[in-house]
Amino acid sequence: MKLRYSVFACLALNINIIASEQATVLEQMSVTATKIEKATKDVSESIAVVDQKTIEDKNILNVQDALQTIPGVIAESTSNSPSPKLIIRGAGLKARFGVREIMVMKDGVPMTDPDSFTRFDFIDMQDVSSIEVQKGPGSINAVNSTGGVIQLITKSVFDEDKNSIKLGVGNEEQRNVNLKVRGKISENDFTSLTFSKRKIDNSWRDNNEFDTTQATLKYGHIFKDDSIIENELSYTESNLNLPASMTKDEFKEFKKSGEQHDTSNQWQHSARDSKILAFSSKYEKEVGDITYKPRFYFNTWEHFHPVTGLINDSDDNKVFGIDLEFNAAHKLFDQDAMLVGGLTFKIDKTDDSKKYQYGDVETKSVTTGWGRNRTTANQIVKTLSNKKGALANTEDSETLLYGAYLMESFKVNDKLGFDVSSRVDKLKFDINGNEITKYDYSSKSYKDGIGDYEIDNSFTLLSAKFGTTYALTDFTNVYASIANANQAPTTSELSDNNDLDKSQSTNYEVGLKTRTEDLSYDLALYQNYVDDEIIQIKDANGNSIYDNAGKTDKKGLEFNITYNLTSNLEIGGSYAYSNFKFDKFNESARGDLVSRDGNYIPFIPKNQYSIFTAYNLNGFKTRLTARTYGSYYMDNANTEKYEGYDLITDFMIGYEMKNHNIQLNINNLFDKYYASEASKDVYNVESYKAASPRMAMLTYSYKF
């Protein structure tokens, strides 16, 4: 790789410090946290970077596998596929599916929709060279996202890399093929093609097959004035069956057998099948001390998405976006400084989206009430397929977001530096629909809908950050920051509760970062106050209800360390302490408002940690990682805890010789059966979603 792309080689849990012959330290760099290249220990916030070696050694095919050992980050998949629940410092907890409250970007292009929803169907992890994770509100990159930013940096068409082919096979009928070829058309023109195909049956439980086909074509040109343009065209077809949750008794049986079949859940045939065509173009040109970085992107997608109660079928969805960024280098206090600014515009438009009743169900006739109030309904016992039935809903929607951002990064002297940033965004929802019928959770049947409806809301979102770093020594920096941001409710949340307000997140943080030849560690202490946080409440049938929680208080400590015992042996680990509580929250329970003041926020464990060791010698390599997720409350009332899980272990062993590489990766080495998510509703009904048992894959790759 060229030097300008090798600066991504930093990982918060596994930072490989590179020393020169004089034993000086080559600073690890971040290029996205402040939109300019800066050493990670000079960034005035908590940031983690997953490098390419880690991605390859762990054979990471899903985003959650890359993030699950970063302190303060919860990345769990309930489907053993690229469909994770992603939480950063408590943000993202409310997501019904997909990812909310967290900004996901790829090469500076937002993958997150204006109303903060992200689908990871877009991402081909085999084209990703590194991942940066910024935690907490106030990032200059974050739009309508108080949880933080995940930036994926893909393999640039300008990278001087070899062509490669990779083949993988594993249990549960796992299959993986990846091909990357790169060509130099002329002295100034470059192109590359990446093709990936994956498949997994997950036969240990019902309705959990997954397959995806992805292709990415890139073209880059270097102009005579050294300005560059890089274009990317990608296509994804993803087919994912989403397994049902389990009752308490069914989960007990799963813990004995590791199998999940014939559960009592009504909705046995949930799925998300998607087709996505995306294009992006980014240009970079220097004019004196100013660098211009305009970006344009467009994607069109369709999906078939059977969920609880209804089947979503939408085939006319388009996203347009422009980001006009500039970097202006200048002097301040006789030191080099950088001013970063820009304008952003994005529109997400959906025409004639439809929802259908399930057309193939098992029902039973149930009579309720007395006298004149006596009614009979055909309750849905269980779906038999995801065949579409009667049309239930039609909808057109347009979500518009536009804004501006500005950041000044400067130093007062060689030791003391500052980052000051602010952005303001306007978010508008315009939704029109016709609800013909809807699923009624109390009767477990369909009933007449409300007819025509309209949602026309807008929110002004403010975000700001002030951070400072001070060099205690040549190798250790201390930092402090204060940041705040707004989070708007989503369209689905507004449909459930049109009175929802935006939340306000304010974060105070101090930390310590050290980088030496053999030792690297990061320590962060933070307190995050959230006013009007939007919290998800579930009723007995899994219906999600949203409410502004009043106030929550999140205190936390995060620590990670890496140490090179020898030039071949590396050890490390991470720890996160999370004390997240409701300061003020009245929950609706069986028609009454019940105070949850002082209760812990569910699903977030107080203690979470991981450890790892890695060994490399003459082509031989091995890596062992274990992670523990502490106990947590399953409901807002704090009536019951799930025990979490201990030391889920992943193992890799492999050998590299010249252009050949063969390795075996085993996730959940000791085949432990546990829940990736456990919850309890206001009717005391418990629900469990199983994590994957042992998965093994043998991979061979060849570079040519």
UniProtKB/TrEMBL annotation:
Membrane topology, record value: Multi-pass membrane protein
Zinc recorded as keyword: no
Domain named TonB-dependent receptor plug: residues: 41-149
GO cellular component: cell outer membrane
Pfam families: Plug, TonB_dep_Rec_b-barrel
Main location per the UniProt record: membrane
Keyword Nuclease (UniProt): no
Cited SUPFAM superfamilies: Porins
Keywords, comma-separated and alphabetical: Cell outer membrane, Ion transport, Iron, Iron transport, Membrane, Receptor, Signal, TonB box, Transmembrane, Transmembrane beta strand, Transport
Domain TonB-dependent receptor-like beta-barrel, chain residue ranges per copy: 201-669
Compartments, record wording: Cell outer membrane
A Gene Ontology molecular function term of the record: siderophore uptake transmembrane transporter activity
Family indicated by similarity: Belongs to the TonB-dependent receptor family.
Protein's recorded name: TonB-dependent receptor
